[in-house]
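User: For my dataset I need records formatted as: sequence, then structure tokens, nothing else. Please produce one.
Assistant:
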Amino acid sequence: MNNNMNGNDFDMLGWYLEIPIVSRTYLTGAFLTTAACAIDVISPFSLYYNANLIFIEGQVWRLVTTFLFFGMFSIDFLFHMYFLVRYCRLLEEGDYRGKTAHFVAFILFGVTIMTLLVGPWVSVHFLGSSLTFMMVYVWGRRNEDVRMSFLGLFPFTAPYLPWVMLAFSVLLGNSPTIDAIGILVGHTYYFLEYVYPVIADIRGWRTKKLLEPPRILHYLCGTYEPVHEHED
């Protein structure tokens, strides 16, 4: 009997290909980075964030790899991948559906703030979890009516999810720094992207959108729509 006829078989390749392109790219990068470390092709010591090594020694790849390494293959790694794929995908298929350039700009905003403004002043080696927390925060703020529960015991709405996760992490004895960075940067993005334009419109300010993706990013993401001027 052909096992492929079994309707209960999980199609891993099909699931992977259904993930939107940006989320799939991030997941792939994180998995391949961890796999390379697991077989000793590269060392985690060459991946972590260090301002001196980046800005003085010129090891600029660390600006990217600090977001790709979530630890070696383990239950903890799977936990991080679950949250990464879930909330990255929810955002890309939700608020950013059909707006790939805007979603890439969202991620680049988080990466830039964390590496240039936060990282040099905080002792954090890997920032992937902070970026994931930023996604969770923004998703929660954009889905205020979604009801959730913690361990099936404590109900709450989506905006409180990052705070519940932060409290649980602290109870487990972990430092709140990584999660707090994600919440702080996520709140900054949310204000600039969703709150500031409303204030600017009410007060009649000339600049109403601060985080509009540049034209080159639209070209690269295939979302550029040229404006055609019509002559009378």
